[in-house]
Amino acid sequence: MRLFTLNVEQHEAENSYLIAPDDAGDAILVDPTSFTVSMLRTVEDNRLYIRSILLTHPRELRMSGIGTILKVYDATLYATYPNIHGYPTSRVQGNDTLDLSGFQVKVVPLEEYSRHAVMFSVSSFLFCGPAISAGIVAENGTQIERMLLAEALRKQFKQLSPTTLLFPLHGPPSTVEAELTLNRDLSDPSDGDVL
Amino acid sequence: MFDNRLCELSGCDDFAAFARSRCFRHLPDTEDYRNEIYQSLQAGGNYSGLNVSQMPFHDLDIPKSEFRCCRFSRSAFHQMIFRDCEFINCTFDFAVHEEVQFLDCSFVQCVLSGARLQNFQVRRCELVENNFNGCHLSDAIFDDCDLSRSRFIGAHFFDTELRNCNVREAYFIDIVQNRLSFRMSNPEDAFMARPSANSGGELGYAPIHT
Predict the structure, then answer these.
(1) Partners of A54 in the β-ladder
(2) Which residues in chain A are contacts of B151 at CB distance < 8 A?
(3) Cβ–Cβ of A135/B149 closer than 8 Å?
(4) According to the model, what pLDDT value does residue B201 have?
(5) Using CB atoms, which residue from A22, A134, A161 is nearest to B151?
(6) What are phi and psi of B35, to 5 degrees?
(7) What is the ipTM for the molecules in this complex?
(8) DSSP character at residue A164
(9) pTM value?
(10) For chain A, what are the domain ranges?
(11) Which chain B residues contact residue A8 at CB under 8 A?
């Protein structure tokens, strides 16, 4: 399994990810916010075909790339929304398990962030979308709502291996262990101050 | 590509070491394995999915190499020099670096959170969007580096200098510092306080928790 982080070279603020087999074949694109020439090159140079597109939280994504991608590739969108900007999706909900091009994709619910937010777990990776980035739980309405989100994330992370890599929409990657032990937003009040 | 094979020993959650079925801790021949890896690294090359987590490294001079999706988590580096190396999506979380130099290297989207960096030198390196959260840095110097969009949330800085570095949109929030210098750098373009719902965060130099 190969993983490509897209957009970094373009100095854009949002990350997209491409999950690909070891050799040529069908790939999964996560949270495409744009579709640039360099992204196209990454796909084509590695003899990949975008077959599936996973959306963690469609409302927060800039969708300018979706139309272009769907013109080039016969891909299916997976999201909690029935359609995105007029493009129909295959609807998913929390705890679904999808078999996409040979990859087992688990849909992790995150209603505490918003009714339509999910994360996607693939092998030892978790694609978190905008709900958390390295060291920071997203601002999410009131203080209480943010605490509930932190609680939900903490609970989900504790079910994962500490070595699970987290790939957020914004910023650098992290690991479950790093977030549970170093992210103040996720510190468990019952454990005392983790720092 | 990441190699996600787990250690074959039941109850062990660690990933299997490169080209082995067990993690480094559970290898019966750690010394031989280490020599094998040392020889390979000293020759330089392209490495993808190399997992050498928890392995100690010392007294090595690593020439131009590319490391993609490699795991060095909880490894220990002592008296090492990396020259012209590229690290993409690599993990060094909770690793220990003592007297380590990175010269003309680049790190892209790497995880160094919780690492201990002592007598640590980074010169002329690109370090865009890396995770240094919770790092402990002492007697460290970043010289002529691009650290833009990297995160040092909750990091501890002691006798550390970021000289002539680009820290645009880097995060230095909740840090603890004693003699942290941004000489000839642009801390005014970095985030020094947590982003709030109403703003993109607070920019500017504001040393805290001295």
Answers:
(1) A30, A78
(2) 134-135, 171-172
(3) no
(4) 54
(5) A134
(6) -65, -40
(7) 0.90
(8) P
(9) 0.91
(10) 2-191
(11) 108-109, 128-129
